[in-house]
Specification:
This protein is mainly β. Helix content is 12%, strand content 42%. Strands 1, 2, 3, 4, 5 and 6 form a six-stranded mixed sheet that branches.
Length: 433
């Protein structure tokens, strides 16, 4: 047995036994909060075994799309045939400019499932940083790739990954005067889109529950608005607002998934209501002549941020979940809408209209530190990645269709989301189990 293979075997045993071979953070890190982000050069050696090439491609695409990594072409390295069972020839990878290196490989087990191993290496330090073993059914090989990308992202940035997630949104088609809007779900990288509604009504503002299996959304027909609860796993759909008079809109789950906040409009006045899904009990939270809408819970479930024009123009307010303690957050000029609390609780994202332009911005939960991340002709509907580092939204040109876009919390990583068709109202799932 060669020294390369022997050392790799010892590394694999140490990782499998969870020995503290390396600190919690890698010696090479991506500083995602610096003034100018410098993507980390990382090379992904060709993966061997079942679905190896496909998994390597998805891992690379995930990391590059984050804006924090630059993929170095492995074909330029003289270290050919590297696999998960051997130690890299580090000088060969330094020569092509890689600072981090990923190797991997998999095989089908006797039970018909795919077993896949990956290793992450510090090229300059010539040492292993991480390694994991994944098991999945063959058709779930993409989830293996996303989990590997999550592990690499976490190790090298210090933040949780967000790649093994899905996005529910509204797929749009047809002329603007007769638009078709379908409830749709896809992987966060645009793969596996699936239509969940039949087009008999317009779908708006779909939102995920904390268990990733349920979606709540608004249905708009010729003479009705309704809020439905949809189970993704079973396809079962339930009407939540059949007994409520008035126009219902803007539903959103509480963090524990047991309640849904929404807006009810009667006689030109809109207020925030709360429904307990266990008892179907409804509670009115705001009583004000202004328009109160777009509620979003804090991660601890104790507060709700919403927008209201009670001061004369749409602004952001926060209240306790029993409706008490209402106070204004936004203090800048312009009109604020569609607030959403980040999963980490650190920021609130919002849409802002000012000077004929629309922007996506963030502020602290006390209203301070407002920062605009993205501005264009029209954009709205922010939703957070589960790690609180990225926001997806939809953007529309003056004569174009809505498209999904992404921006990170620094505002320096901004790009189209990986879905090439028209789409709006995205909502990001939590990390999948």
């Amino acid at each position: 047995m060669s020294l390369r293979v022997l050392f790799a075997a010892l590394v694999a045993l140490a990782i499998a036994a969870s020995l503290p071979m390396t600190p919690a953070r890698a010696d090479i890190v991506v500083d995602v909060n610096q003034g100018q982000i410098q993507p980390l050069p990382i090379s992904i050696a060709p993966f061997g075994g079942e679905h190896g090439a496909d998994i390597a491609q998805v891992v690379g695409a995930d990391l590059e799309r984050s804006g924090y990594f630059r993929i170095v072409d492995p074909s330029a390295s003289s270290d050919k045939g590297l696999n998960v069972g051997v130690v890299p020839l580090f000088p060969a990878w330094r020569q092509i400019g890689a600072q981090a290196l990923v190797s991997g490989g998999g095989a089908m087990g006797p039970d018909g499932r795919l077993g896949f191993d990956y290793r992450l290496w510090d090229v300059n330090g010539e040492k292993p940083l991480d390694g994991q073993h994944f098991v999945a059914t063959p058709e779930n090989w993409r989830r293996v790739a996303h989990k590997i990308a999550d592990a690499i992202y976490t190790k090298l940035t210090g933040y949780k990954g967000y790649f093994d997630t899905r996005v529910v949104f509204v797929a749009e088609s047809g002329p603007k005067t007769h638009r078709k809007k379908l409830l749709t779900i896809m992987d966060q990288d645009g793969a596996n889109p699936l239509y969940l509604s039949d087009g008999s009504y317009q779908v708006m503002t779909p939102r995920y529950s904390s268990n990733s299996q349920e979606v709540v959304y608004m249905a708009l027909g010729d003479n009705f608005t309704r809020i439905y609860l949809f189970n993704i796993e079973t396809g079962r759909q339930e009407l939540l607002t059949g007994k409520i008079t008035g126009l219902v809109s803007a539903p959103r789950f509480s963090p524990d998934g047991n309640r849904v906040a929404f807006s009810v409009t009667r006689g030109g006045n809109s207020d925030i209501w709360l429904m307990d899904l266990r008892t179907r009990t409804e509670t009115r939270l705001t009583v004000d002549p202004g328009i109160d809408t777009s509620p979003s819970f804090s991660p601890d479930g104790r507060q709700i941020v919403f927008n209201s024009d009670r001061s004369g123009s749409p602004q952001l307010y926060v209240m306790n979940t029993d409706g008490s303690g209402v106070r204004r957050l936004s203090q800048g000029g312009g009109r604020y809408n569609t607030p959403v609390w980040s999963p980490t609780g650190e920021l609130i994202a919002f849409t802002k209209q000012d000077g004929g332009r629309f922007s996506i911005g963030v502020m602290n939960p006390d209203g301070s530190g407002e920062k605009i991340l993205s501005t264009s002709y029209f954009e709205e509907g922010p939703t957070w990645a589960p790690n609180g580092r990225y926001i997806m939204f939809h953007r529309e040109a003056a004569a174009g269709d809505p498209r999904l876009w992404m921006v990170d919390v620094t505002g320096r990583v901004e790009r189209p989301a990986p879905y090439s068709q028209s789409g709006s109202d995205p909502a990001w799932s939590p990390l999948l189990d």
